[in-house]
Amino acid sequence: MSTVTISAQDINKLRQATGAGMMDCRKALTETNGDFEAAIDWLRKQGQKVAAKRSDREAKEGVVIAQTSADGKTGFVLCISCETDFVSKNAEFVAFAQSIADAAVANNVKSAEELSEVVINGAKVSDLINDKLAAIGEKIGISRFERLEAPYVASYIHGAYRMGVLVGLSTEAAEAGKDVAMQIAAMNPVAVDPESVPADVVAREKDIVMELMKQDPKMAGKPDEMIAKIAEGKMNAFFKEQTLLAQAFVKDASKSVADYLKASGDVKVTEFKRVALG
């Protein structure tokens, strides 16, 4: 039994992240000693349809901007975070975030730390951020920075600067790039294809699948070979739903994204980045 005190704030945080009921969230946190990520897995192992927390949902409020270099071979997506939507929706703050994104592109920076040292109109970005913090009274910072290089990079900003996507392609294909970027924004795949899914994600999903199967009365007494085959089928379903190329194309569900790209001149996706406010 957990000796960790579970607060109402902890329960509410898990509830907002997963959509699970209050009592289920309390039990999940209790069973996992307050470990937020483990609590999400605990809920999923009970068969609840909750989404695992993704690394692209970090900044609660802010402005996300995605754009590419003039030659279309390098893309940048960054989030200038703040504390309230009142600030994030302010035109002056959006322009401030855009100026930092422009500086990232102009100086071809490789990291948030490097971007902080870039000079805009005589002042370093880090100093400009501190000045903005003092003027607004909210914590402001470069909370996310992603960079992508490819023969061609497409960028896409979704909504009112709530999400930014970069897609690296094997060749210049503006229309395909935009369509795939919109696909990524809408469907949030974990990787380009099954081979590029991180090993820890695969292991985590397999663990959840096996735990659910153990709890299924229909599986009692079934031979290990049959259980393994069923588990493999469930993992294939996971890859189909969660990897970009295997997903149904949002503009035409009768074909996969891979089919669409093949028909677009056999374009290949090399990599993608997705940053979203959570």
Structure characterization notes:
This protein is of the alpha+beta class and 278 residues long. Among the domains are: 53 residues, Orthogonal Bundle (Helicase, Ruva Protein, domain 3), CATH 1.10.8.10; 116 residues, 2-Layer Sandwich (Tetrahydropterin Synthase, Chain A). 45% of the residues lie in helices and 21% in strands. It contains 11 helices and 10 strands. The protein has a 3-stranded antiparallel β-sheet. A hairpin with a 5-residue loop joins strand 1 and strand 2. The chain is flat and about 75 Å long.
Output the radius of gyration. Answer: 22 Å
**Secondary-structure element string:** HHHEEHHHEEHEEEHHHEEHE
| Beta strands, count | 10
CATH topology type of the domain at 61-176: Tetrahydropterin Synthase, Chain A
Q: If you average the pLDDT, what whole number results?
A: 90
CATH top level of the domain at 61-176 is: Alpha Beta
Number of helices: 11
What is the 3D shape? flat
Query: Which range does the strand content fall in?
Result: 15-25%
